[in-house]
Amino acid sequence: KRVSLHLFVSVLAGSTGLLHCPHNPGDTLLMMTWWIRPLYKPPCFITILDSRSVNNCSERTMHENLSLKILKTHITDTGNYSCEVVNAHGTFHSSFMLQVLVPPSVSLTLNPAGFPECRTVGGISPSEISWIPESDDVITRREMSPDKTWTVISTYRVQIIPGREVTCNVSHPTFTHPQILTIVIPGKTLKILSFGERKKSQQGQ
């Protein structure tokens, strides 16, 4: 048996996941099996023998030539997948780790103590948060919910001066560009600017 490298694949929730088995036996295929072991639901398999196939997976999961297609991916599709190809030359095996990503919601507020707090909720995987100006006095907490999504809370604990701007920069695998929010504190009034609003404000000065 020859075992290939373990491959890592990420897809966005709701999109179609496609795993390509790298072994192509051509016309010599005797049997092929996809073994599916999700992290959050029971395992299943799809076997192709001659022109027949056996599939005890969900209707969203199907084989297409030597590939596996998963329609409208869910969080629960995250897990380990492997393809096994048998032909006259032997058995060939490849494995995949499929991660289904979900974008988080992002917010920026002042917490009860008066410190800026950047929060991302409902993401898979956890987001990364940084601040401008940079500071060593930042506390970041990560919590996984029962539905396997992440909440990330980052608190900027530097003393805030009225009129000062503090910017929260959020990165996540589902974001094409980092999301940027800025707090402006003129006296006791709190205002939150998006990156686009902030740029317009600067151009008008």
From TrEMBL:
The keyword Repressor does not apply. It comes from the Eukaryota. Gene3D superfamilies: Immunoglobulins. The keyword Signal applies. Residues 6-101 form the Immunoglobulin domain. GO terms for molecular function: signaling receptor activity. GO terms for cellular component: external side of plasma membrane. SUPFAM superfamilies: Immunoglobulin. It is a single-pass membrane protein. Residues 1-21 form the signal peptide. It is found in: Membrane. GO terms for biological process: regulation of neuroinflammatory response. Its main location: membrane. Keywords: Disulfide bond, Glycoprotein, Membrane, Receptor, Signal, Transmembrane, Transmembrane helix. This is Immunoglobulin domain-containing protein.
